[in-house]
Design a protein that fits this description.
Layout: E1 2-6, H1 16-22, E2 25-27, H2 30-38, E3 42-44, H3 49-55, E4 62-66, H4 72-80, E5 87-90, E6 97-100, H5 103-110, E7 117-120, E8 142-145, H6 161-174, E9 181-185
Parallel strand pairs: 1-2, 1-3
Antiparallel strand pairs: 4-9, 5-8, 6-7
Length: 186
């Protein structure tokens, strides 16, 4: 049974907290994730976070994945000697419409690292839609599971400058235009 790493504020919001616990989520802080790994749990993370959510355009065929400043999961894998399994879902951005809050509310929520938008699916609820809103064509989700990336446990608490440089090199290869966002067509 794996645990989802979730934004920490979720556990302070009534309703969201209960849903988070129901689906097996835990705070995505390093301390909590490290403890879950020590207990034997697998961890599922979606590293793009709020920035990726705000960049999502359901009317576009281009999906943007945010990797800039999202290397904590690699560091945790190094510290614990855990393999990384890349997973990607195509089509999920069409299951809900993104609704932006007014700018003052977005700025306020940003101080708490919370999204300045919400998602509306079928019947204006959080239930995902099964047809695209503009064309009414059925949504098919495509899951791609990459080959596990073996990660050797570090002998020291910190990665060496060479290891940090290698991680940056890999991320830079993915981020062709240097904006911290990887884009690709669905």
């Amino acid at each position: 049974f794996g645990r989802w790493g979730w934004f920490g504020m979720a556990f302070y919001l009534p309703g969201v907290r209960e849903f988070s616990l129901l689906v097996g989520a835990c705070d995505a802080s390093k301390k909590v994730l490290s403890g879950r790994v020590d207990e034997g749990d697998s961890i599922h993370l979606i590293p793009g976070g709020i920035r990726e959510m705000m960049l999502t355009d359901g009317n576009s065929n281009v999906t943007k994945v945010v990797l800039q400043n999202r290397s904590g999961f690699v560091r945790l894998a190094w510290e614990k000697g855990m393999d990384l399994v890349p997973v990607f879902c195509f089509g999920e951005k069409w299951t809900c419409e993104k609704v932006l809050f007014p700018k003052p509310i977005r700025l306020f929520l940003a101080k708490f690292r919370m999204a300045g938008s919400t998602l509306l699916g079928r019947w204006n609820s959080l239930l995902p839609s099964n047809v695209r809103s503009e064309s009414k064509e059925p949504i098919t989700l495509g899951w791609v599971f990459g080959k596990p990336i073996p990660v050797e446990k570090l002998k020291t608490k910190k990665a060496s400058p060479e290891e940090e440089k290698e991680m940056k090199r890999v991320f830079d290869q993915l981020d062709k235009d240097g904006d911290g966002v990887v884009s690709g067509a669905d």
